[in-house]
């Protein structure tokens, strides 16, 4: 499968497994899962047929491992805007984590800290390179350093998605080092 088809399928999955399952008439369970055969049937019925082999390639070959398949069901590992409980355990974060953003948000972030915006959590990266890529989606990236160890010591809860994205409810401004 060529890269363009792979990206198209991945975006199609993101749309329906994270944001708008109703659009193709599927229902995610409380933890975000939907049976693979139901997803494939719904996609075909809505004019976007995907073969099981293609789905497998997108799930396995995806650089970010955005999707997980387990027991015949599939879900997005993070990034939802529809209410789902990913049921991830709280884990102790490393001393520092990173957040990639862009200059135009920095003033607001200085005042309010990091907020989840349209997602369920603030997304944090384990390394500067990943955060730079996340920021670069929107323009010239700015990487903020998050004092995750200190936040955790102060009682903030951290979780890690199946694909290694760190999730927090908020990051108050006092825990941010902004360049
Ligand atoms: C910014 C992609 C103003 C925040 C990536 C970000 C990631 C504020 C934007 C994942 C703010 C929200 C998530 C505040 C935060 N005032 N702006 N107080 N607090 N922001 O897309 O972190 O391809 O919801 O800096 O790789 O950019 O979808 O979050 O710029 O892992 O798998 O508000 O999405 O993964 O944007 O990206 P997003 P994000 P996927």
Bin the helical content.
25-40%
Describe the sheet with the most strands. Answer: 3 strands, antiparallel
Report the count of strand segments: 9
Tally of individual helices: 6
CATH topology of the largest domain: ADP-ribosylation fold
Strand content: 15-25%
CATH class of the largest domain: Alpha Beta
- H-E string: HEHHEEEHEHEHEEE
- CA radius of gyration is 17 Å
Strand order of the largest sheet: 1-3-2
Q: What ligand species are in this complex?
A: ligand HQG
Poorly predicted runs: none
Short account of what is shown:
The protein has 179 residues and is an alpha+beta fold. It folds into two domains: 74 residues, RNA 2'-phosphotransferase, Tpt1/KptA family, N-terminal domain (Arc Repressor Mutant, subunit A), CATH 1.10.10; 81 residues, ADP-ribosylation fold (Alpha-Beta Barrel). Helix 1 packs across helix 3.
Annotate the secondary structure layout.
Blueprint (H helix, E strand, L loop, with lengths): L2 H17 L14 E2 H10 L6 H10 L5 E4 L2 E4 L20 E6 H10 L9 E3 L3 H9 L4 E6 L1 H6 L4 E3 L5 E3 L7 E2 L2
Antiparallel strand pairs: 1-3, 2-3, 4-6, 5-8, 6-9, 7-8
The protein binds ligand HQG.
Q: Mind explaining what this structure looks like?
A:
This protein is an alpha+beta fold and 179 residues long. The chain has 2 domains: 3-76, Arc Repressor Mutant, subunit A, CATH 1.10.10.970; 97-177, ADP-ribosylation fold (Alpha-Beta Barrel), CATH 3.20.170.30. 35% of the residues lie in helices and 18% in strands. The chain has 6 helices and 9 strands. The chain has helices at 3-19, 36-45, 52-61, 103-112, 128-136, 148-153, and strands spanning 34-35, 67-70, 73-76, 97-102, 122-124, 141-146, 158-160, 166-168, 176-177. The strands form 3 sheets. The protein has a 3-stranded antiparallel sheet with strand order 1-3-2. The chain is elongated. Ligand HQG binds next to helix 4.
